[in-house]
Design goal:
Layout: E1 4-9, E2 12-18, E3 26-29, H1 30-34, E4 46-49, E5 60-63, E6 69-72, H2 78-83, E7 94-102, E8 106-116, E9 131-137, E10 145-148, E11 161-167, E12 174-179, E13 184-189, E14 200-209, E15 214-224, E16 232-233, E17 237-244, E18 252-255, E19 258-259, E20 269-273, E21 280-282, E22 288-291, E23 302-311, E24 318-328, E25 336-340, E26 346-347, E27 350-356, E28 364-371, H3 376-379, E29 381-385, E30 393-397, E31 402-407, E32 418-427, E33 435-445, E34 453-454, E35 458-464, E36 475-479, E37 482-483, E38 493-497, E39 505-507, E40 513-516, E41 527-536, E42 543-553, E43 561-562, E44 582-589, H4 595-598, E45 600-607, H5 614-618, E46 622-629, E47 634-641, E48 654-661, E49 668-671
Parallel strand pairs: 2-8, 9-15, 17-24, 27-33, 35-42
Antiparallel strand pairs: 1-2, 3-6, 4-7, 5-6, 7-8, 10-13, 11-14, 12-13, 14-15, 16-19, 18-22, 20-23, 21-22, 23-24, 25-28, 26-27, 28-31, 29-32, 30-31, 32-33, 34-37, 36-40, 38-41, 39-40, 41-42, 43-44, 44-47, 45-48, 46-47, 48-49
InterPro entries: Cadherin-like_dom, Cadherin-like_sf, Cadherin_CS, Protocadherin/Cadherin-CA
Protein name: Cadherin domain-containing protein
Main location: membrane
Length: 672
C-alpha cells in the first residue's frame, strides 16, 4: 500500500514516501541505506533517532535498532504540514532527520524524508447541499459574467484542482470561464437570453483534480424579466493607503456607492461582501465598510475585498468593485528581550545570577537577544546597559540584535557582594517609543581568597606565678582573636598552638581562649613564647600565625580593699542637687606592690528595686570617676551628680562597684 525509494547525492540521502501511510509502515531499511555492502548482517550496529518527541521526529520510529527499520510512528498528513507551514509545499515537503549510527565508531547521518502528496481530498463546493440558485435578467448582454465561488481542494500541485467543466441535458447559452491562478470562476453569457422561450436552466458544474476526483455543484439559473439598467459603482477599484493597524473594532473604514438608472424597486441597491472574511463587514443599505476584527500589520499587511452592488428589480442586476486596503505599521509591540541559556532562573523581567568571585576578566555573564515585531523605526531597537553606578560588567554588541554581558574587571565579594544591573531596550517608534528592561540581580559567590588575620601579631601578656590549677581544663589567661572576611566555611577560623612540645598551655580552637594548665614559677622560667596559628575551613585552607609572649610575674596575692565597712554603704542626697555635686569618695588600695597586680580598675552596675522604663534605666543621673596612684597601688572612686534627679520618678538607685586588679588571673572586691 506504500512505496519508497531513495537517492544519494554527496552522502545526503533523500527518501520519498507517501503521506498517510499506516502506523508501523516501513519507510526504509537504514542498515542497507547507510552501511556499505562490506558490513555483514551479523555485525552489531545500533541506529537511533537524534530526538524523540520534537518535530519532525515525532512521526518516525526505529524498530529493531540493530536492524535499522525506520517506520511510521504517527500518521503524516502532508496537507496539514503545508497548512501549518512546517514544510515548503510550493517545492517539496521535506522532513530532515539526524540518525545516530553506533558501530565500531559513532557517526551522525542526515537523511531527508520527502513526503509525497496523495490525492486524498476531492474538490468541494461550499454552497449548502451543493445547490446554487442564480437569477439573471433576460436582457443580459453577451459577455456578461456571473462570478461564482470556486471549489476548494486541500491537496497540492497535480492533486489539486486542474479545471472545471459544465454539463447539461440541454444546450446552454453560456460557458464556464476560470482562472486557477487567481481563483476566479464565472459563467459567461454567450447568447441572447429569452425568458419567454426558456425561463430557467439547470446544469452541473464539475471541478476536476489531477487524480480524477471531482466535486459537483448543481445550479438552477432563473431568467427574469427585463431590468435593463444595472447598478454602477462610482469606482471599480478603491485603494486605501496607510490604514492604521490599531483602528478600533467597529470603525467605518469607507463607504462604497453605486447608482442605478432604473426607478422603483429595480433601482434600489443593496451591497454585499463576496469575500469570506472575518475582519470586514458591509452595511447592505448604506455601503459602509466596517472593521470587525483587530487588524495586525505583523500578521497581514494588506486586504482585497470584492463588493457586489445588486438592485432589487426582477432579474437582479449587479456591479462589482474591489477595495484594496494597505495597512501601516503602528508601534504596538514592545521590544522583546530573550536571554541565553534558557535555563537561567528568571521571573518576568527579572533574572538572578550567581557568579564566582574568581571569574577572570572578560568572562561571559549572559547572552541576550533583542527583537521587535514592528517594522521600520517602530522595530528599530536601541539597547544599553545602565552604567549610572560603577559596575564590573560591560555590554558587547555582536550584531544589531544580539549581545553579551562580560566581566570587565575582577570581582571581590568582600568588597561588593551583589550588584543590580539594568538592561534597557527602546524602539524608535512615533509618536511615542516603547521600552522594556531586564533587571539582573548578581550575587557574588564567595571563594576562599582571604587568610585569617590576627588583630595583633606580636602580643605580650603578664601571668602571675604560683596560681594553683584546680580544674582539669586549667584557667583562662588570654583570648587571641583573628578575622576572616570570607563567608561561611571560608570564614570560619580554627586556632591551634604550633609549639611542638607544649604542655603548659591549651587553646580553644573555636574561641581562641588560651588556658594555663600548670602552676608557674618564674624562678624556673619567667618567659614563655607561644606560636599560634589561625586557619580557615575553606578548600584549600588558608592560615596566618601570631606570637604570644607570656611574662611570669609575682603572684597576685591580695584583692583590692576599700574604706567601706563590710563593703556596703547607703548614700543620701537632695533631689535638687546640682550637676558636679560629689556624693561620695571611696578609697581603695592593693597590698600587691608590683605594677600589674597592684593596678586597679572599677566597673559600675546599676539596677532598680522596681521595673522602670528603658529610658529611666539608660538615663542614670550619676557618673563614676577614678583617680589612680599606680606607684602606691591606690585607687579613688568618686561618685558625682551628672543629670537631673527627680524623687517622684525614682527615689533610690542600687549600685554595685566591682574593684579589680590587673593580675592574671585578677582578684576583685564588690561594694554595694
Amino acid at each position: 500500500m506504500f512505496f519508497c525509494c531513495f537517492c544519494q547525492q554527496q552522502e545526503h540521502f533523500i527518501i520519498r514516501t507517501l503521506e498517510k501511510l499506516p502506523v508501523h509502515s516501513e519507510v526504509i531499511n537504514l542498515r542497507r541505506l547507510l552501511l556499505s555492502k562490506n558490513v555483514s548482517d551479523s555485525q552489531n550496529v545500533d541506529f537511533t533517532l537524534a530526538k524523540r518527541d520534537d518535530f519532525p521526529y515525532m512521526f518516525f520510529l526505529i524498530n529493531h535498532s540493530t536492524r535499522g527499520i525506520l517506520t511510521i510512528r504517527k500518521e503524516i498528513d502532508r496537507d496539514d504540514l503545508c497548512r501549518l507551514r512546517r514544510c515548503r509545499c510550493d517545492t517539496w515537503c521535506d522532513l530532515e532527520l539526524e540518525i545516530f549510527v553506533n558501530s565500531d565508531q559513532f557517526n551522525i547521518e542526515l537523511i531527508t524524508i520527502r513526503i509525497l502528496d496523495q490525492n486524498d481530498h476531492s474538490p468541494q463546493f461550499l454552497s449548502v447541499n451543493n445547490q446554487l440558485n442564480l437569477t439573471i435578467v433576460e436582457n443580459a448582454p453577451i459577455g456578461a459574467m456571473i462570478k461564482l465561488e470556486p471549489a476548494v481542494d486541500h491537496d497540492q500541485g497535480e492533486n489539486g484542482i486542474i479545471g472545471y467543466s459544465i454539463t447539461s441535458a440541454t444546450a446552454l447559452p453560456f460557458s464556464l470561464r476560470y482562472d486557477l491562478s487567481r481563483g476566479d470562476l464565472s459563467l459567461v453569457i454567450e447568447e441572447n437570453l429569452d425568458r419567454e422561450r426558456v425561463s430557467s436552466y439547470s446544469f452541473d458544474i464539475i471541478a476536476h483534480d489531477g487524480g480524477n476526483q471531482t466535486g459537483l455543484l448543481h445550479v438552477n439559473l432563473n431568467i427574469d424579466d427585463v431590468n435593463d439598467s444595472p447598478p454602477k459603482f462610482d469606482q471599480s477599484i478603491y485603494t486605501l493607503q496607510n490604514i492604521s493597524e490599531n483602528l478600533p473594532m467597529n470603525s467605518i473604514l469607507m463607504q462604497v456607492h453605486a447608482t442605478d438608472d432604473d426607478q422603483g424597486i429595480n433601482g434600489e441597491i443593496t451591497y454585499h461582501l463576496l469575500n469570506r472574511d472575518n475582519c470586514f463587514q458591509i452595511d447592505q443599505i448604506t455601503g459602509n465598510v466596517r472593521v470587525i476584527c483587530q487588524l495586525d500589520y505583523e500578521m497581514k499587511t494588506n486586504y482585497q475585498l470584492e463588493i457586489e452592488a445588486r438592485d432589487d428589480g426582477e432579474g437582479v442586476k449587479s456591479d462589482f468593485c474591489t477595495i484594496i486596503i494597505n495597512l501601516i505599521d503602528e508601534n504596538d509591540n514592545y521590544p522583546l528581550i530573550d536571554i541565553y541559556p534558557n535555563d537561567i532562573q528568571n521571573d518576568s523581567n527579572n533574572v538572578h545570577l550567581f557568579l564566582s568571585e574568581s571569574l577572570p576578566i572578560n568572562s561571559l555573564v549572559l547572552s541576550l537577544s533583542v527583537t521587535d515585531r514592528d517594522s521600520g523605526d517602530n522595530g528599530r531597537v536601541t539597547w544599553r546597559l545602565d552604567q549610572s553606578t560603577s559596575l564590573p560588567f560591560e555590554l558587547i554588541r555582536l550584531t544589531e540584535t544580539t549581545g553579551e554581558i562580560r566581566t570587565k574587571r575582577l570581582l571581590d565579594r568582600e568588597y561588593v557582594s551583589e550588584y543590580n544591573v539594568k538592561f534597557e531596550a527602546h524602539d524608535h517608534g512615533k509618536p511615542k517609543a516603547k521600552s522594556n528592561q531586564l533587571n539582573i540581580h548578581v550575587t557574588i559567590v564567595d571563594e576562599n581568597d582571604n587568610a585569617p588575620k590576627f588583630r595583633q601579631n606580636d602580643i605580650h601578656v603578664t601571668l602571675s606565678e604560683h596560681v594553683q590549677v584546680n580544674h582539669p581544663n586549667g584557667y583562662e589567661i588570654y583570648q587571641i582573636q583573628a578575622d576572616d572576611f570570607d563567608q561561611d566555611q571560608n570564614g570560619e577560623i580554627s586556632y591551634s598552638i604550633l609549639n611542638p612540645k607544649n604542655k603548659f598551655f591549651e587553646i580553644d580552637s573555636q574561641t581562641g581562649i588560651i588556658r594555663a594548665m600548670v602552676e608557674f614559677d618564674r624562678k624556673q622560667q619567667d618567659v614563655y613564647i607561644l606560636n599560634i596559628q589561625a586557619s580557615d575551613k575553606g578548600t584549600p585552607s588558608l592560615s596566618s600565625n601570631a606570637t604570644v609572649t607570656f611574662i611570669i610575674i609575682a603572684r597576685n596575692e591580695h584583692p583590692p580593699k576599700c574604706n567601706i565597712e563590710k563593703n556596703s554603704a547607703s548614700l543620701f542626697l537632695k533631689e535638687n542637687s546640682k550637676q558636679g555635686t560629689i556624693i561620695s569618695t571611696i578609697s581603695c588600695h592593693d597590698d600587691d606592690k608590683d605594677a600589674e597586680n597592684g593596678q586597679m580598675s572599677v566597673h559600675a552596675n546599676w539596677w532598680f528595686d522596681r521595673v522602670e522604663t528603658n529610658q529611666l534605666k539608660t538615663n542614670i543621673p550619676f557618673e563614676i570617676m577614678t583617680k589612680n596612684n599606680v606607684s602606691e597601688s591606690i585607687l579613688q572612686v568618686i561618685i558625682i551628680v551628672n543629670g537631673s534627679i527627680d524623687h517622684e520618678l525614682i527615689s533610690s538607685y542600687q549600685l554595685l562597684l566591682t574593684i579589680s586588679d590587673n593580675g592574671n588571673p585578677p582578684q576583685s572586691t564588690n561594694i554595694s
